[in-house]
């Protein structure tokens, strides 16, 4: 067994920084050897902050000049397929951020190539590693609330996404960029695949901010009918402004379970009885999923060291993309859309 | 100004008992003079419990023999129209439980007759009188969370509804019998009428209990698109078993608001660290809306004494029925349904 | 059995208004027939607000001119003994606010005279009627947390007490005027009398506000050793400014119980992620103990109607006064003080 | 600057395992090179679990045979002084668990020797590194609740302490072994030293379990008067059974702050409305202070790497011991005890 994993980070933005920080400060048996970003200012700033000496503006360059076992890809979605495949062909293990790719064909290519070159492929669904979600999933599996009947999963993010993520021509919008986690959570916790979805969207804050991209939306509500007959919903708001909000509620035929809360810290203050109690809220996703981000990187490194497949791979990523595409088709065509329309197009 | 209102209770079941109790113990300037129920055991039991001497098996009989100013109608929905109109024509003020009636035609007749005979018509939307909902509504109106963008309202009731309420031939099902409050809450808190709805339903616990009535469902999820462009959802589960659950969450373009909680009492106990903290849940709707039920009766009596119209009348009842009908049509036809299809049928 | 109780309110201040409101709006089978206050502006204002026609500036005058069954005494503590005895001798049932009196001798006279004249004496410990405290007491009695080992009871009030209540020459200070409830709660929930107490006090906010009355304190911390060997504490802060805060925590040999919370309403708002969640706090004691105040008045009226003794009477009031006196002696003499020093002075 | 710190763990018990785990899995730039324990089974078990190859039964042996920069001492209190001094004289940096030592003389020797040999001395007050406590302290310093007037700090631990920790002949009992953190928290958050204390104790659960050691207590309540005139209390219960409970409440002249809560995870379940909501509680101190334990080890390693003194050193440890001694003297002599009686004995 190897005793250490050397990693090349691809993407020096916000998520890239979170993962770099985890690997440097909270994961043993690994080294961050190089950083890649096409934007040189971002590259320099992040590399300086984390004291990473090897810096490249392309994965090709990194592969040519550096030596590492794995990549962590946090670049925009449209780049995922090519970067993953390039890494896989070079024999590098791949940690890939969500959403996996733009369509199912891309997902299939990534899965195929990582399998062909015998490298691990782990998707960035950190909720699968959050202690609360993990405990909840175990308790549901153990039957604590009986058979799940209805699930509601929401993700509200504080800030406006970047332009490429607002445009259905270059991304799959909020359903993909923000709600990918919810698509995965639904399947995971309900233990059933989705059968059909119906989506309503609105552009409300975006409109005030002058965002007039075709089909842009900042509010989304998805109704879900599962293959096993149960029901669900996903809702998304971005930018919501008020914090980072990710919660799930599930009712089974023997009880209810709530996962997560708005409160970010158990410090309560009141200085004005006309205002009331003040409690910190989760401000950002790295705060909310602090342990999830650490545990998923530990899992990535551990699986490589032990030569085991990760718990969350291409299949999970592909299902989330399928949900996104069905949800998007639904609001574009204003009708319920069956997953089989996406999975097995005529 | 009169100094007291005498009331005839029509319906001696659970809701009837709650209102009788409020009028007897928590509302001044009123008297409960008679009780009507077609089932003699129920009539006797409730009349004995509350020490009501005048007991009748029909409103006609009560009108003929007794003397009162107002009626409180809590009988099954199919009886609402005839009882309301009979009372109105006799010059009696009407408090009518939700849902108002089976269809919009019935609603229109009730509104017309109560107006014609100059009697008050108040609908049993007690959430409009719950201190938390009232405060929330005021704060939303005052702009505290900005323009409302997305609302989620849920009602989960503990027990299986009676047979007549499970059958679309004799009622409008759970969307009417349980979720009427949510339809009203959506319009009230969002300050907008509904434009279209999409509904998914499931029969999960009912199936296990052997309920095989056509179109029976015990889980429902409604997506809502409002006229002003905002989004919403209503969900219902009955029987949920775990308690009485009525909560609302609203996000505006400047913040989020949560109304209500599962917790029924601020008494927390832990005796076993492997089990955890135990906190009472709201077991029933009279517990959850204890103040709402009292305040709505006070309002009913006050409006009669002051000769003022109640804040929640036929219009609110009619809109809730319209929502129910649109939501039902949606799941029957498996497509989004516009409210105008219900309000102005071709 | 009588079918109605007529009441004369003695004291038109804040507590007097709360009880008047309960009797007028939430308690059946009673009438408020007269109001007494020595301050004519207060008398007129309160009588006008509640539409009470009979107004007197002394109990003597009320007894001479009016006709009633009971009195509700909410005047300052130094008047309690004389008013209670005067009412008792006239055959009127007595509801007496806490603290019962200034010393044990006064308590004994009140108890003796009410017994001699066969009238009910109920003390204003509304926590005994608060649904959460009642439920907690029952669960403790039922053994849910085992044998109680340690109890902490706190009362923090928002505003500065009136001058007479700040001076040990005219009152027993905060321990009596604010913390009387805690003294009673300790005995009630622990099921044991107090053996010794040790008290620390401080004048911190008062000093800033210029209150320099001898022995005035606005912060107090009492350690308690019970006769059965268990431990406890009472803490008081007045004025605390931030709200009305009354909570209890008890640990038994099989678990912990928390009673009450700061939160005043289940309406949570966040509009600024740097500030966090905002939840209403209980602003005042009538808000916190809304049901307690109603139920204690219902109990007072019911006991008179049924000719039964109230659950909370002179004995409970006397024990609370004994605690206050021991606690006060402790901080004056800077040593632990035994209750028997107060109960059986040498 | 060094780029890594090698550590010898002294003590292979529960706390030793927690620190070893932090150093191995969550702290970069450090190595655990050796483990010392006098009990060979414990030594072997822990060394095996963490795959530590160098194992010694004494610090002397470790110093003779191994090579390291620092020690982490988690052995019973009576060993603290000798082990710390031995390590210091060998030039090793010292992380020392609470309580620092048995008396002030021992504290002084430890401080003196670590200073003389220019090694760092960090005390195991992990609450100083808990994100909630840190944030709370900053907000208090920033004046958010005004001038602190009253603080209550509690620590309740689940299990019965080992025999040596129950006996005042070999330890300072629960006030030292469990409540050391509270003594430190009081000074830290109030920004004032303690002036006098009064302590009540009880042996309740211990008695049932047959613990009859002289002066053993399992419940303790300490009243505190600070030098700056403000008030406080410390309470301790061990074994409490129901979980690990560490909370603080502070009231300042402008508001209240609550730090910590019983709830261990934001996963709420209800399956039975007669039972209510169930929420996980913190079961153990490693769960409650997961981040605190990691951050204090990071701080220990960082300070050594940067050649800086730790934020929590001998002075803080000494003050906590002084509090313990005053508190113990108080209950033994049944009177309030001034800190100066301990700090400057006659």
Strand order of the largest sheet of chain A: 12-11-7-10-9-8-15
Mean pLDDT across all amino acids of chain A: 97
Q: Can you give the helix content of chain A as a percent range?
A: 25-40%
Order of helical and strand elements of chain A: EHEHEHEHEHEHEHHHEHEEEEEEHHHEH
The unreliable regions of chain A are none
Q: What proportion strand of chain A?
A: 15-25%
Number of strands of chain A: 15
**What is the chains' assembly state?**
homotetramer
Distance between the termini of chain A: 47 Å
Structural class of chain A: alpha/beta
Largest inter-chain contact set: C-D, 40 and 40 residues
Total of DSSP H or I helical runs spanning 4+ residues of chain A: 14
Shape verdict of chain A: globular
The largest pleated sheet of chain A is described as:
7 strands, mixed
Task: Chart the SSEs and their pairings.
4 copies of one chain form a homotetramer.
Chain A: E1 5-10, H1 14-25, E2 30-36, H2 40-50, E3 54-56, H3 59-65, E4 70-73, H4 80-89, E5 93-96, H5 104-116, E6 121-123, H6 131-141, E7 148-156, H7 163-166, H8 173-177, H9 180-190, E8 194-202, H10 205-208, E9 219-226, E10 231-237, E11 245-252, E12 255-259, E13 267-270, E14 277-279, H11 285-288, H12 290-306, H13 314-333, E15 337-338, H14 339-343
Parallel strand pairs in A: 1-2, 1-4, 2-3, 4-5, 5-6, 7-10
Antiparallel strand pairs in A: 7-11, 8-9, 8-15, 9-10, 11-12
Helix pairs in contact in A: 1-12, 4-5, 5-13, 9-13
């Amino acid at each position: 067994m190897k005793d250490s994993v050397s990693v090349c980070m691809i993407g020096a933005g916000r998520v890239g920084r979170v993962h770099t920080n985890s690997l440097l400060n909270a994961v043993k048996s690994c080294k961050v050897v190089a950083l890649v970003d096409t934007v040189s200012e971002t590259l320099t700033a992040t590399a300086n902050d984390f004291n990473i000496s090897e810096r490249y503006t392309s994965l090709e360059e990194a592969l040519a000049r550096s030596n590492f076992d794995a990549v962590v890809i946090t670049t925009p979605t449209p780049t995922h397929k090519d970067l993953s495949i390039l890494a896989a062909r070079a024999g590098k293990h791949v940690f890939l951020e969500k959403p996996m790719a733009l369509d199912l064909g891309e997902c299939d290519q990534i899965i195929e190539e990582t399998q062909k070159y015998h490298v691990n492929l782990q998707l960035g669904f950190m909720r699968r590693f959050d202690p609360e979600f993990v405990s909840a999933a175990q308790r549901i599996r153990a039957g604590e609330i009986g058979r799940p009947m209805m699930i509601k999963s929401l993700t509200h993010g504080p800030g406006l996404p970047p332009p490429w993520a607002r445009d259905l021509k270059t991304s799959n919008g909020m359903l993909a960029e923000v709600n990918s986690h919810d698509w995965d959570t639904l399947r995971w916790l309900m233990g059933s695949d989705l059968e059909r979805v119906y989506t309503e969207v609105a552009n409300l804050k975006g409109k005030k901010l002058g965002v007039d991209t075709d089909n842009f939306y900042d509010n989304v509500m998805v109704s879900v009918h599962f293959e096993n007959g149960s029901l669900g919903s996903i809702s998304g708001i971005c930018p919501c402004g008020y914090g980072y909000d990710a919660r799930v509620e599930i009712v089974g035929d023997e009880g209810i379970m709530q996962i997560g809360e708005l409160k970010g810290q158990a410090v309560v203050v009141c200085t004005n009885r006309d205002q009331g109690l003040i409690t910190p809220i989760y401000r950002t996703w790295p705060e909310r999923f602090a342990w999830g981000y650490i545990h998923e990187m530990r899992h990535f490194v551990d699986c490589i060291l032990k030569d085991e497949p990760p718990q969350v791979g291409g299949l999970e990523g592909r299902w989330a993309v399928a949900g996104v595409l069905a949800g998007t088709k639904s609001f574009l065509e204003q009708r319920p859309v069956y997953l089989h329309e996406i999975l097995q197009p005529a």
